[in-house]
Write a structure and sequence with these properties.
This protein has 282 residues and is α/β, with parallel strands linked by helices. The chain folds into three domains: 98 residues, 4-hydroxy-3-methylbut-2-enyl diphosphate reductase, catalytic domain (Cobalt-precorrin-4 Transmethylase, domain 1, 3-Layer(aba) Sandwich); 77 residues, Rossmann fold; 90 residues, 4-hydroxy-3-methylbut-2-enyl diphosphate reductase, catalytic domain (Cobalt-precorrin-4 Transmethylase, domain 1), CATH 3.40.1010. It contains eleven helices and twelve strands. InterPro entries: LytB/IspH. GO terms for molecular function: 4 iron, 4 sulfur cluster binding; 4-hydroxy-3-methylbut-2-enyl diphosphate reductase activity; metal ion binding. Its cofactor is [4Fe-4S] cluster.
Length: 282
């Protein structure tokens, strides 16, 4: 979603980030799921996208999220989460005859294939990502011994290996990924590190758009589910710029701000952004 406009209320000026919310690939994936649901019942083995607004849409369409294999018997199609599932499960479901539709992000697919190639080369496989994020767990699930690096504490605990092979969760802050990969190189200078940046390009454009607004504003509201990875990445950007950051659960933190920018995480629907902006201008 690309948009920039301004609103005011009682001396408070509001500006929307030029790039916010869903990118083209994410919107297309959601639209494809809507078409599948119109053709017959759909089950998803996990959460399709980590956003309450998306989950509400799926319920309207009759899609079963977080489905078990028992639920598969009740539907026509099994659609994969946008953040992926383990390749082992995916292959098994196909062998058992379920109709599987691959609605994974292309960047998740790329990360999963790359991690497998790095494992074949004998590297210690790594995923730069959040320990509790379903996408990161799906990336690591297929390759026993894969280590998740969320912060420098994880890097400090890492044992030496002659070769490391790393990919990253697609919805992290680009600056955080660059910093952690740099710390990894500095810790083990004698090891060979193969790192493929598998971030979604949308994260970089959201971050750049927000940074340009941070020169103007004194506070930022980031739309999206509190704690969701891309929302947290944007909040990190705001704090790094020295401005007041708030998610939807903490909007009171913006009290006293006279210039407020609005940004949105990777899975936020346009109508949700518009609703929040409206609350700020009322």
């Amino acid at each position: 979603m690309s948009k920039q406009n301004t609103g005011t209320r009682a001396g408070v000026e509001i500006r929307m980030a030029a790039v916010l919310g869903m990118d083209t690939e994410t919107r297309i994936a959601l639209e494809s799921l809507e078409r599948l649901a119109a053709q017959g019942a759909v089950a998803i083995p996990g959460i399709f996208m980590p956003d309450a607004g998306v989950a509400a849409k799926l319920r309207q369409w009759g899609v079963i999220e977080d489905a078990t294999e028992q639920d598969f018997r009740r539907v026509k199609t099994v659609a994969l989460p946008y953040g992926g599932v383990s390749g082992r499960d995916r292959r098994r479901w196909k062998e058992e005859g379920w109709r599987i539709v691959d609605t994974r992000s292309t960047h998740v697919r790329r990360a999963q294939v790359t991690l497998g190639l790095l494992k074949l080369e004998g590297a210690q496989t790594l995923v730069i990502g959040r320990h509790d994020d379903p996408e990161t767990m799906a990336l690591a699930a297929d390759y026993p011994g894969t280590i998740i690096l969320e912060d420098t504490t994880d890097i400090a605990r890492l044992h030496y290996a002659p070769a490391f092979g790393a990919v990253c969760q697609t919805t992290l802050s680009p600056r955080r990924v660059a910093w952690l990969s740099q710390q990894l190189r500095m810790r083990y200078r004698d090891a060979r590190l193969s790192f493929l940046d598998t971030l979604s390009p949308g994260m970089a454009t959201r971050e750049r758009s927000l940074e340009s607004l941070c020169d103007w504003c004194d506070g930022v509201l980031v739309a999206g589910d509190p704690g969701e990875s891309s929302v947290e990445a944007l909040l990190e950007t705001v704090r790094r710029c020295g401005k007041t950051a708030a998610d939807e659960g903490d909007m009171h933190a913006l009290h006293g701000c006279r210039r407020i920018a609005v940004a949105a995480g990777a899975f936020v629907l346009p109508e949700r952004v518009a609703e929040l902006a409206g609350k700020l201008t009322r």
